[in-house]
Amino acid sequence: MQLGGNYTEENIKLRIAQKDKLPIKKANKINLKNEPLSVMVALENNKKVIESKGYEHWAKLYNLKQNAKTLNLLKQYGISSIEEWEQKKISNQEMMNVNISEMKTVEIKLANIQFILKQLDIYENTKERYHSTDKQILKSDEQESAIRLYKNAVKALKQTNMKPSMQVVTELHHQLHSLVEKKQCLNEKYKELRKIQKQDYIIEQNLKQLIELNKISIGRE
Questions:
Q1: Could you report the per-residue pLDDT of 91-138, keeping only the tens digit for each?
Q2: For residues 81 and 13, what is the distance between their CA atoms, to the nearest angstrom?
Q3: In sequence order, which residues have a C-beta less than 8 Å from that of residue 90 and are 6 or more positions away?
Q4: Cα 153-106-92 angle, rounded to 5 deg
């Protein structure tokens, strides 16, 4: 289904004018600059439209602006049919899905590295106390706690196949830094994709109204 012809600003404006015979000022050119894309006002069964001719007049002009801006955006994207629009929408959603998946992967890696670094830190801070207690008969609560922490750290590091060393710590910090940067980039990408999704939603709603308006207009001709 093509988006030209019946969906041009001129044709929609003509249909609205023919439908209700409402005089609309002619010479005002629609200005699309510095105006965000918004969802068109539903005119059918709209209580405000029914009760106020002034609101109805405003709503129709508002819809003309949003119609023109919607079609202008689709033109910029090289979209000239509903089928092309559906493919574009699916593609945008797939990019979002990939982004979310990559973010989850990075977050898991970050959590793992942070856990290992914590265990390495515990290991370094408790190993001397652990070995020094071998010669002591009486152990304080603090020493007992250090022993437990040391043993848990050793166990955790064995499970992750990590041998404590400064080289390992340095490498893990390097990986951590790279992952943090990657996460920041993915977060920025996510924000951009969210904006695209919001725009896609508005375009979708406006196209539905334009298609419905076209059906109604054709039925009344």
A1: 999 999 999 999 999 999 999 999 999 999 999 999 888 777 555 544
A2: 21
A3: none
A4: 165
Q: What is the rounded distance in angstroms from the CA atom of residue 203 to the CA atom of residue 40?
A: 9
- Sorted by sequence, the CB contacts under 8 Å of residue 161 that are 6+ apart come out as none
Per-residue DSSP letter, 3: S
Q: How many Cα atoms sit within 13 Å of 151 on the Cβ side?
A: 6
Amino acid at 214: N
- With contact defined as beta carbons under 8 Å apart, do 10 and 212 qualify? no
Residue 81, phi then psi, degrees to nearest 5: -150, 160
Tens of pLDDT, residue by residue over 3-35, are 555 555 555 555 544 444 333 334 344 454 556
Answer positive or negative: Cα dihedral of 142, 147, 148, 150: positive
Which residues fall within 8 angstroms of residue 218, CB to CB, at 6 or more apart? none
- Read off the amino acid at residue 75: K
**Cα 84 from Cα 205, distance rounded (Å):** 16
Q: What is the DSSP string of 125-153?
A: HHHHHHHHGGG-SS--HHHHHHHHHHHHH
Rounded-to-integer distance, Cα 123 and Cα 157, Å: 9
Structure tokens given for 88: 């574009």
Sequence-distant (6+) residues with CB within 8 A of 169 are 117, 120
